[in-house]
Structures are given as structure tokens and as C-alpha cells.
Amino acid sequence: MRLSTINLQKRLSTHLNQLPLSLTLVVAWLAGAIFLFSLAPYGFWPLAIVSPAILYALLVTSMSGRRAFIIGEAYGMGLWCVGGFWLYTAIHDYSDTPTWLALIMIALMGLGMGLFHGLLALVFNRMVGKQPFSFAALWVLQEWLKTWLFTGFPWLFVGYAFTEEYWLSSLAPVAGVFSVSFVAILLAASLVELLLRRSSYAIVSVLLLAISTSLWLVNPQWTKPKGTPDLSVSLIQGNISQDIKWLTKYQVETLKIYAKLTRTEWGRDVVVWPESSIPMFQDEAAGFISEMIEMANATNTTWITGIPYKDKAAFNASTDKYPPFYNSVIARGVEAEGLYKKQRLVPFGEYIPFEGVLDIFPSLAGSQDIKSYSRGSDQQSPLKVRGHNIGTAICYEVAYPDTTRKNAIDTEFLLTVSNDAWFGTSAGPLQHLQMVQMRALENGRWFIRATNTGVTAIINHKGRIVKRAPQFERTVLRGEIQARVGNTPFMLMGNYPILIIITLLLLLSYFGKGLTTLRRRG
């Protein structure tokens, strides 16, 4: 039996290594590209198993480190050029970039982000044992690195494909989205090992799946209702086109649209407007804001809105050219107070990286001061709304698991406001919504999401969409939300458990490979 397994491995290794590199790279690229269809809006989750399984099969056979790196890079390019193609809309449609240049920029983005999988493949080939545990550990490591390295771009995680597949996503409130990714990748690699007739790895995968399924069947309630009546909420979707949203001549019209949509909603417990729905600083819109607060107070309503916030109190005329300003959310009206300032800013969209470096160029000196938002502190108090604390996230910072987790501590429900008009009818806004579902599941909190063009939605503590508004319509989404208290294990421990596990696995794999090498030499 052992001999036949070795022979099978050798035959597979020979066949794969005899394939022309160009054909292998095409297979790797396509394997990365098909992963997109496991995510929203397509939701064919088996591809989240098939896609990495193909990469594992290409890497597990003997080959040079250079070949492994190139295969991993090809897979990563396919993943990002297709999975992240929604960026083309923002680059081409709203930045007036020529088609050819926009496509080159997408390709360069794919090339850069593909390095994560290229390095994964290289380390897998040269430094650790070639088996499912090290592969799954390296996969999670590269996903985690994307949440902070070079400011982070935490998109296209395998775990998101299982957001509504409770047999696996039940791990999310225990150890976060990375634990879901880990089990899925371990399963994918183990299936390849079964084809190689090495079933021992599959046993562990089945065990982890059994644990996840047990959690789903037992359905532990990590959090519980606060014991107060549900809050009625109205989420206002203005559907303001991105190409006119920031035009000075259209600002008053934008305010009129939101005021008109809200006219019938005063009297609800909470009314929420999306990100930057007031397209001017708070001092410039002071009169309008006062009118809205008066309406809220008169109708026993809490009003929450996204707005650029200029911090005049922090302005020092002797050292600063401009007061710092923030992408923010304010809560006003009945039983409401608080200001949240966005912590995770979009590079080149909300700030210029390497601030100060441009000053060496006379023609660009000071330009970043004009364009850049300031970062909010990571130690902000939650918004106060009708006796509840609200954890807040603005736009794509909800994609950062740990940022949302920290903002969720000592809160009863969660809020995110966004403007995904930049990405048109692409899959980007729907992938973004799927991440909000995962954050709700991880933290055991209801999430309300108000957006400019969609997807506006109400999501329960299990990550299920309770209600959603149609995209690209000027509308109001009404519903009720439930305040909840208590902490999920993920809220208490964050990513530390899964990071400790993958670190131990990689160390064991590294030293295990070294011992094997020594025995062979001996």
C-alpha cells in the first residue's frame, strides 16, 4: 500500500512537472479567477474549496522554489484581477482614466496583491512540510497580513464564501473569519490528499467540520437580548450619483432629497443617513443641521448622519495650514450624542500615503494637506442612542475584523454607513455587504447599514439579512432591530487563538521537515 502511494505521488509529480510552465500558469490563473463566483452575488461556495485545492495540487508535488513562486503569483493575479475588478468602475468611470490605462492599473494591482500567494507558495515549497496543515496555516497568515501590511486591503477571504453556510460559519463567533478560512482550506487540501491516498490529513478536516457542525446544531447563544423593546429604524437611501455628489452647485439639492425622504420617517426611534450624505463640513451646514435636530426633538426621534467633520478646536494657526478634518458620523436628537471619526482611511481616496514626502516637489508641496482626511483615534467612545451604545464603522473599514471587534465592545448593536456608488453595478458593493454579515456573526450583534446607492440592509446577530433595499433606487428601508449584550469568544480574544494555532503548525512543520531531511541524509 505504501509503495503504491509513493508510485502514485511520483507519477502525479512527474506529470505536473512535465506540463509546460505556460499551461500551468494558465491553470493557476483560472483557479484564482473562479474564486470570485464563491462570493456574493453568485454564492456558489463549493468553488471556495475547489479553487485553493487546485493551487495545492499544483504546489504539493516536487518542484523548484522559483516555479512555485510563479505559480502562486499567477493564482493571486487571477484572484485579484477578476475578484477585484470592481475597482475598474472607480478608476475608469469616475476618475476619467482611459480604458487601456485602467486595465493596466488593474493588472498591476493584481500583480502586487498576487505577491501574497506567490510568497505563500514559495514558503510552502522551501521552508515547511508540504501537507494540508502548513498550507492552511500559510493561507490564513497571508489573509491576516492583508488586514494591516501597507495599511491593508482585507478583501477576498475564503471564509466569506461561507457566511450563510452555518455548518462552517458557526466558527466565526468563536475565532473569527480566519478560523472559517482555515477549516475550508484544510478541507480543500485534504481532498487532494485523498486523491493521493493519504487519508490521515482528511481525518483532522472531518473532525474540525464535525466541531463546526456541532456548534451549528447546538446553536449556542453567545449574546442575549438586552430586555428592552426593539428599536424602529428608518435607513435613508438617497441614490445620489457619484459624478454629482460633491459638486458645489448640487449640495443644496442633495440636502433637499434627504430631507424629503425623511419627512415621513420622523417619529421612528432612529433615522439613519449614509456616509457623507451631508456633502459639506458641519459648520457650513450648521443651519440645515439645526433644522433636522429640531425635527428630531419634536418627533421623539434620534437622527444619525454621515458628514465631513472639521475640528476647529484642534487647529493651531502657527503650525497648521488647515484644521484637521474627518470622515465622520454624528448622532443628534432625542437621547442621542456622539461623534465617530473614521479610523481606516482609503489610500489615495481619503489620504495621500507617505504624507510629507511630496513636499520635496515644489509643484506638489502641501497638496496632501488639502486632500487628506485625518485618522480617527482607535480609542473612541461609542455613539449613544436611546440608552444604547452603538459601535460604528464607516465604509470599507468594516472589512477589518479587529477594528470592528474593538468598536463592538460594550455596545448593544452596530452601525455602518457607506457610499458604494464608486463601484456601480459591479460585485464590489455585494461583497462589501457580505463582510458586514460576517462582522455581525463574529460579534453577535445586529447591524444596520445605510448606504447612498445600496446595499442598504438590516442584518441580525446571526449574519442573516432581515431586510434589504433594492440598489440604485431613492428609497427608505424600515425595520426593527434588537439590542443585544454579552460577548462572543471572538470579541474577547480576537484573532489570537487562530494566530497561535497557525504559528504552532508552521513551527512544527518547519522543524518536522528539518528532521525528515536529516534522517534522509543519515
Describe the structure.
The chain is of the alpha/beta class and 522 residues long. The chain has two domains: 2-220 and 495-521, no CATH class; 224-344 and 379-487, 4-Layer Sandwich (Nitrilase/N-carbamoyl-D-aminoacid amidohydrolase), CATH 3.60.110. 47% of the residues lie in helices and 14% in strands. The strands form three sheets. It has a seven-stranded mixed sheet, covered by helices on one side. A six-stranded mixed sheet has the order 7-5-4-3-2-14. Strands 1-15 form a two-stranded antiparallel sheet. Helix 4 (65-83) packs antiparallel against helix 6 (99-126) and helix 10 (177-195) runs antiparallel to helix 11 (200-218). The protein is globular, with a radius of gyration of 25 Å. The chain starts with a helix and ends with a helix. Residues 361-369 have low confidence and may be disordered.
Quickly describe the structure.
By secondary structure, this protein is of the alpha/beta class. 47% of the residues lie in helices and 14% in strands.
Tag the structure with descriptive keywords.
Nitrilase/N-carbamoyl-D-aminoacid amidohydrolase, 2 domains, 19 helices, globular, C-N_Hydrolase_sf, transmembrane helix, acyltransferase
